[in-house]
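REVIEWER CHECKLIST
Item 1: Sequence provided? yes
Item 2: Single chain? yes
Item 3: Sequence as submitted:
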Amino acid sequence: MNLIVAVDANWGIGKDNQLLIRIPGDQRMFRQKTTGNVIVIGRKTLDSFPGGTPLKDRVNIVLTKEKRESRGGEIYVNSPEEALEEIKKYPELDIYVAGGDSVYRQFLPYCDTAYVTKIDRKYEADAYFPNLDENPEWELAEEGEEQTYFDITYAFLVYKRK
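Item 4: Structure as written out by the authors:
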């Protein structure tokens, strides 16, 4: 299973249920990786999408404590265990855990690859991703070329579980 996330220099990922910044190159990479595959997200992440609707051309598995009816084909589950059972229905697809912070923490032990867009700037954040540089179970496997978006520098990194 994979993780996909954009983090700032402090491993912040969001503020007030929104991304810290929207970088077109990062959004393109996210689409390329996840389209045609499965994403596992939390309810707040789903609610942050335009119109609160699931992302098209993906299986959207949404972890929530609430009882909700599917509006756009999303699949609601009430526990990480239920999500892991649901994922088994899609053996031919890649699985991407895509937020938010509590979902990342709950699924990190099940993942072996993390696609991280590392933004070289510190933002005010209230949601964070675990710092993989400080986690002895993970190592940086690939580091893409530094890119810029206006005055923001970022790079695509791939971490692998040791």
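Item 5: Key structural point noted by reviewer: The radius of gyration is 15 Å.
Item 6: Recommendation: ____
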